[in-house]
Amino acid sequence: MKVQVSEVIVKFLQGLGVDTIFGMPGAHILPVYDGLYDSTIQTVLVKHEQGAAFMAGGYSRVTGKIGACISTAGPGATNLITGIANAYADRQPVIAITGEAPTHIFGKGGLQESSGEGGSVDQTALFSGVTRYHKLIERTDYLANVLNQAAKQLLAAIPGPVVLSIPYNVQNELVDDSILGQISNLSHAHKVPISQVLVNRSVELIREAKRPVIVAGSGCVQADEQNILTRFCECLNVPVTTSLKGKGAIDESSALSLGSLGVTSGGYAMQYIIDEADLVILLGAGFNERTSYVWNENLLKDKTVIQVDQNPQQLEKVFKATLAIQSDISVFLQLLYDTCQSNGLQKKQVIDVQQFKSSIEANAVAQGQSIFNQQFDLVKKFYSLLEHKFTEGIVIFDDNIIFAQNFYRVSLQDLFFPNTGVSSLGHAIPAAIGAGFKADKPVFAIIGDGGFQMCAMEIMTAVNYDISLNIILFNNQTMGLIRKNQHQQYDQRFLDCDFTNPDYSLLAKSFGISHVKIETEEECLKAFDQVNFNQGINLIEILIDKDAYPNYSSRR
Fold first, then answer.
1. What global pTM score does this model have?
2. By percentage, how much of the chain surpasses pLDDT 70?
3. 7-24 pLDDT per residue, tens
4. Is the distance from CB of 59 to CB of 19 less than 8 angstroms?
5. Which end of the chain has fewer CB atoms at under 10 Å, N or C?
6. Which domains does the chain have, with CATH numbers?
7. Is residue 215 very low, low, confident or very high in pLDDT (cuts 50, 70, 90)?
8. Three-state DSSP class for 414?
9. Is residue 322 packed enough to be buried (19+ CB in 10 Å), middle (13-18) or exposed (0-12)?
10. H helices within 132-263, ranges in order?
């Protein structure tokens, strides 16, 4: 039986487990949209294609499934690029389906053509650096192979985004439905195995160490192995710090938690590693600029280092490890725990972690070096109330990273997604909306006023689809990071950082959503008593001083 290529694409998406696709139609992608009409896939109309890509990423993060977005040719496709780049940097399985002008007008200056012919925009070149696989499908004879390659990248142990661009006439072509049988089994890749010899060597290094410490990264969270990590640490009395993306790998209220490691953190973990640790175990944590304090050599100096990562490209990327192991984090942790148990390793006699943190903080305050002063007490109060109100967990997409990193202790019930990757302003709201289609906990988008104005139109997407969402908006009428750097490094020569905001109460009213403005701790307490965080859309505006600067330097 003959079927249209557009129908094959829709069935391919269904085979991948896609049940929601975010995007915006246009003439060159309407055949695929028509195929979606009778499918089981829910289509979500966004306000801008960048928002569609961010929503697909947020959906993927909260579900662990493939996220999907769709756009027309030309500007529709190019508008996706930042969101696809974010998925690429964070290794998210996101598929984008884009239209293209008909092949018979390639090179003739067709409307919205992006084939690269005749001086037109070259979409393949634009996406080549931010995808794991991108194909302009000009013929049907290799369609099955293209779909197999796309699935392979989306379902890989280390996935990444895929973009398939399909000319209008190709979408309408008829192919034999047997083509669907030529597509390989659409299942996830097997976990990376590990040699017991390497596990045994790790156990010996742990046995020899007096004060080991674990640096847990996003690999621990993605592997969903927080419980086994917690059991292992408690069994051996090993303190844990996390990268920013690894927050939640261990309950941060635990007696063994050192909090987050990184240049924008309070510094407890860094000081503990330098002063106390003799063995550092990095589990799925990239030693990037933020985590490493801009690659501070003192962090790992004279330390025994075990590095475990599923991605071989991360191993010994910027430092030499005593033992570098490529393995799925869940496989390694379970084997390590079992082997330590069978070998009868004893608890380590380490110092009181919480007392150590208190001492570091007290010294910093006494010397005027604390990362936050009393000007941030309102923000600190907000996060304290947030933490205590939602003991059963929430979902957080955080663009304004530094506050939550220091003030919010992520629990094992929380899902915390900081805006890392390409760190694009405006990410949190659309990503949170995407997650809201499947999340079973209250969803929060935390964002500054600069980023808010890059994505505020997507609030109407949440309104249109009845998605509950809590937007925490920090209003200081400036691009805070830029102003801080111009204050610290450029002799307060402020340029293009300050601006005037709209009246957010009126803006919220125009959207038909709730608005609360918080200027004092009393108003903050009142908000937590009155706001329904579980239903509807809430815009919670928190005012902070534009001349209040966190006390850290990123050397930028």
1. 0.94
2. 98
3. 999 999 999 999 999 999
4. no
5. N
6. 2-182 (3.40.50.970), 196-356 (3.40.50.1220), 371-543 (3.40.50.970)
7. very high
8. coil
9. middle
10. 143-154, 168-172, 196-208, 218-222, 226-236
